[in-house]
Amino acid sequence: MATTYESQKEDISALWEEFSKRIEKLTRYVKKFSMLVLEVPRMDEEDKLHYFMEVL
Q: What CA–CA distance (Å, rounded) separates 32 from 35?
């Protein structure tokens, strides 16, 4: 069963849309996390990484 150029184009477009949404969510999370970490004094870098990765 051969796929047409148009169906491949649609598949790629749908994948790109999903990827863009995920990148947007990740970017918002990173910005929010960065702002929150600035408010917490004396947090070890290892703790920061742990809390960051925990939510991903």
A: 5
Max Cα-Cα span within the chain = 60
Asked whether 43 and 37 are in contact (CB, 8 A), the reply is yes
Query: 15: pLDDT confidence band, cut at 50, 70 and 90?
Result: very high
User: H or E segment at 33?
Assistant: helix 5-39
Q: What is the DSSP letter of 43?
A: -
**Which structure tokens are listed for 30?**
């990173």
Q: State the Cα–Cα distance between residues 8 and 6, nearest whole angstrom.
A: 5
Structure tokens at 9: 């184009």
Which tokens hold the place of 39? 């408010």
